Every structure is written in C-alpha cells, then in structure tokens.
Amino acid sequence: MVVERIPFVDLQAQNAPLREALDRAVAGVLSSNRFILGPEVARFEADMAAWQGVPAAIGVSSGTDALICLLLAAGVRPGDEVVTTPYSFIATVEAILRIGAVPVFADINPETLNLDPARAAERLGPRTRAVLVVHLFGRAARLDPLAAACAGAGVALLEDAAQAVGATVHLNGHRHPIGTVGAGAALSFFPSKNLGGFGDGGMVLTADRAIAAAVRSLRNHGSDRKHHHQTIGGNFRLDEIQAALLSVKLPHLAAWTEGRRRVADRYRRLLQDLPVRLPPPDDGCVWNQFVIRVRDGHRDALAAHLAGREIETATYYPAPLHLQPAMAFMGHRPGDFPDAEQAARDSLALPMYPHLTEDQAQRVVEGVAGFFSSAGASP
Ligand SMILES: *Cc1c(COP(=O)(O)O)cnc(C)c1O
C-alpha cells in the first residue's frame, strides 16, 4: 500500500486554485512596464493597512529588511541596546547586529515561548533604545506590563510579526492590531509565512507618521525625492510583481487563518490525552506553526517515527540564538536562558496549513500516538 506523504507545508494546495489570477497579475505588470514602486505596491500597501487596521503599511524587500528599517526608523543607533528573545529565527537578532546595535537577551515564557514581559522589563537600562518582541509561531507576545515599562523609560517597543500577520495583541484587556501598540511591526512574505509571496518580501506596519516616513525614505536610499538623500538607507523595496501577486492572495487570508485555527483546534482535541505538551489556546493566534513539546530525549525519535510514516515535521528552533556560533562573541553559555534552551530541546512543529484535512490531522495524531504506545518510547 502506498501511503500518501503529508508535507510540512503545502503551498501547492493554496496556490493552484489561484493560478489564473496569479498569471494575470504578472502579465499586468509585464505590460505596464512599471517594475519599481508603482501602482501595485501602492495598492497592496493601502489594502494591507486597511486589512490590518493600521494607519501605515510600507512594503519592503524582506522581513529581515523590514526589521532593519524599523529599528533604524525608531532611532536605534550603533551601540544602543535592544532587548529581545533568544528563541526566534536568526533574523531577529541579525537585524539588531547588522545596524551595529547590541542585542540583550531576556528569557522566554515557558508556556507561550514568547519573550517573557517581566524578564524583558528587568533588562531595560540606561543604554536601552528599543525592545524587539517576536510573535512566535503566530501567537502575539504578551505586552503587559512591558508596554508601560517601555513608555515610562522612553524605549521604543517593536514587534517582529514575521510569523503573525493578522494576529492581535492583548493589552489592558483589549485586543489591538499588531504594529499599533508600540512603534511598529515587521511582516514577512517569505513563501511559508501565512501570507506567502513568490520570492522575498516584507512590510513595516506602524501608526506613527514619523516612523512611516522614515521607513519610506530608508527603503529607497534615504530619499524622499529624486537625487536628494536625507539619510543613508538602502535598496529595501518591495517590487511590483511581488505586490501584484500578494494582492491576489490577500483577499483569501482571513479564510486561510480560519482554516489554520480549525486545524489547531482539531490537533488540540485529538492530542489532548497523549503525553505531549500542547501550545496554550489563544483566540488571537494565527498559527503559523503548531508546536508541541516532547519529553526530554524523545523529540528527535518522534520526528523520525513520523518521517517513517510519511509525515513531515520540523524543529523550530534546534538551537537558541545565544548559543549560535555567530553569537559566540557575546560570551553566553548553556544555562544562561534555560527556558529557551529547554524549548530548543523539546519542541516539534507538526504539519500546519489551512488545507490540512481532517484525515491528515487524524493520521498525524495516530502517528504520535503510535510512537508513545510502541515499546521503546514508553516512560
Ligand atoms: C521569517 C522570519 C523573519 C525574516 O523574514 P524574511 O522575509 O525571511 O527575511 C524574521 N523574523 C522571524 C521571527 C521570522 O520567522
């Protein structure tokens, strides 16, 4: 019997039904002969601002570049400290270092896997210029009481929302769109993100006019009019073809997010009696990943067991940022951020996409159950 493979992400299922509209979008840009900062980027920016409920949305070349522009626009300069999480994709800390600033890590909350707001607030000091939270796996980071601590200290609160387009932030008992609580948020349109493009792309969301203007200038060589350069920026532009393609996908994003939430609910229900720790429920979460925690020492064996049943999984992230070779110069050691290190040892991401069927979810769960009932894996 041939067992059908369950991929970790299924872009084909998402893109195939849109194929004609996507082809038309590319053809339209080709005939327009406008490839850089034309009507498609402007339209996509306006649509994204409206969709996200934030005054300004500025398209840029990637999520990483969105972080760089956001940090610079918020006034972070070489030598300034930026408090952030040690448990994220490398781009979070890379953007800080790329502009010459100094990352200062605070440990994560072991339940949400996001930067722990109280631990982060403790790291604010005289040289802190910003705090960069990450809405990891689609779950908005808790900003109480961090937002108030930042405001009190004159520190910019920035959001790495690369995995969290459409998520909402809880603050003071209310939900707020990402990018509106602090100085701004960075989005990524990397193909596997919830709004995935056909190549690289990113965006800065902000409610702050000065930050919006600064990002617009920075993405285009520090220029707000031709041959006049206010600051040193770069080439961080989103291009017309990418914007046109993303505009085809945006109207479907709300339904896809609902699909992810259905998959998450299903996993949660089916997995509840198994000896794995489930991600906590959260209505505002957009589930870029569904990450379970597997008892020490069993994570990789479970992944191999599932791979043997044609079920793909992924490890986000096998090493925390402070222990990456590129960060060795910071002098961190194992034990410095124990909750991040624990998550790096025991988290496993299951297949997650809007089109994952009930049968597929069932098979994933049976695979997990089979692992724990087989002899070698018992406690
Ligand atoms: C994907 C990602 C980025 C970087 O986005 P790119 O578009 O790939 O540059 C930054 N931060 C986090 C948390 C991410 O997941």
Principal-axis shape: globular
Give helix and strand order, one letter per element, not per position. Answer: HHHEHEHEHEHEEEEEHEEHHEEHHEH
Helical content class: 25-40%
Beta-strand content bin: 15-25%
How far apart are the first and last residues' alpha carbons, in Å?
32 Å
Order of strands, main sheet, comes to: 1-9-8-5-4-2-3
> How many H/I helical runs?
13
Please provide a written account of the structure:
The structure is a single chain. With 379 residues, the protein is of the alpha/beta class. The chain is 37% helix and 16% strand. It is built from 13 helices and 14 strands. It has helices at 11-15, 19-32, 39-52, 63-73, 91-98, 117-122, 146-153, 209-218, 240-249, 253-271, 299-307, 338-346, 358-373, and strands at residues 56-60, 81-84, 102-105, 128-134, 156-160, 168-171, 174-177, 184-188, 202-206, 223-225, 228-229, 276-277, 290-294, 347-350. Strands 1-9-8-5-4-2-3 form a seven-stranded mixed beta sheet. It has a three-stranded antiparallel beta sheet with strand order 12-13-14. Strand 10 (223-225) and strand 11 (228-229) form a beta hairpin. Helix 2 runs antiparallel to helix 9 (240-249). The longest helix has 19 residues, at 253-271. The chain is globular and about 70 Å long. The two termini are 32 Å apart. The mean pLDDT is 96. Pyridoxal-5'-phosphate binds at residues 62-64, 88-89, 91-92, 134, 160, 162-163, 188, 190, 200, 202.
